């Protein structure tokens, strides 16, 4: 029986080597995602590096199906199915790096679009001290995670480093004396001495139902990948109030937004106030390329914006661009953080349904630094640029 053309092509050395080259290039560029995108007359390959997409190469549209089929073979997906979305993953070792590659294939009007998430264990299991927290914030967070029970929320948009923070936290507090479980969507990395589970809505295993079952597993620490609905929120809060340390995420713009989100879901304010240990909001800012960063003297109006009106001379840096950083001016990323750690007065305000503005005002009086303020610190330290801080904090409620 004659073999289909695409089955022949995907086994050809050209396609196999081509996909391997793209994967190697992604690792070299420290890309988090690979986009293989069909257009009318071409295939565009883009990498997401330091949170920003950049075009790498283009190919004739005739190579789309062989390229996607080769990726499907690696991820053990159905190469004949082109009308439905498919998800898979495969393991890969490039030199000394062990990678987990998550694959998503989705049909478009010009053909199948493939996105590969490249997960590198060495970049996610990092020490908490390497996440980029300021010294005082790091001390606050260490205080939070030593609590025997309660709930800690990590907030921010997709791609802001929440998973890295949660995994690094688990790694920090993981001991043989504790039973640690997770419920994720999907499992990003396999962690030692942690019982990890992945939701499967088709089988009836959701965050809410899975959390109910996990509470019967005698856990000390529970990581819930995300609170998406009121049922999950209620169970997580009650778990925190009954002797468990719960770590989870919410999609909010700033730390105090988590309190408002839970209230909007219908969770009783007194339960929120009693269960919440604290909230950490975060973003990732690109760090300037050490080779081409361009120093300059900050103008007076910028110093006022940075909260330094009395300074006569402050040197900052601009992102210029060179071959080493791919002409972006940036190389690598670090975190900026905002930590809300409620004291007794703030808990009483939460119970009395105080507005987010009131909670923010009191927290700032207590010394809380906003995301943007922490970003300004990084800019003053010449770690990043003012422009980059403004870019990643533009959606934050506070400035």
Specify the number of helices.
Answer: 15
E-strand count: 15
Uncertain spans, ≥5 residues at pLDDT below 50? Answer: none
Indicate the percent of residues in helices: 25-40%
Q: Termini separation (Å)?
A: 67 Å
Strand order of the largest sheet: 9-8-10-11-7-12-15
Structural class: alpha/beta
Element order: H for helix, E for strand: HHEEEHEEEHHEHEEHEHEHHEEHEEHHHH
Query: If you average the pLDDT, what whole number results?
Result: 93
Per the principal axes of the C-alpha atoms, what is the gross shape? globular
C-alpha-based Rg, rounded: 23 Å
Biggest sheet character: 7 strands, mixed
Describe the structure.
This protein has 399 residues and is an alpha/beta fold. It contains 15 helices and 15 strands. It has helices at 5-11, 13-28, 64-74, 121-124, 135-145, 162-173, 207-214, 230-241, 257-265, 269-275, 300-305, 344-351, 356-365, 371-380, 386-392; strands spanning 31-38, 42-49, 52-60, 86-94, 97-108, 111-120, 150-155, 180-184, 195-198, 221-224, 245-250, 276-288, 294-297, 315-318, 330-340. The chain has a seven-stranded mixed beta sheet, sandwiched between helices. It has a six-stranded antiparallel beta sheet with strand order 3-2-1-6-5-4. Helix 7 (207-214) packs parallel to helix 8, helix 8 packs across helix 10 (269-275) and helix 10 (269-275) runs antiparallel to helix 12. It is globular, with a radius of gyration of 23 Å. The protein starts with a helix and ends in a 7-residue tail after the last helix. The mean pLDDT is 93.
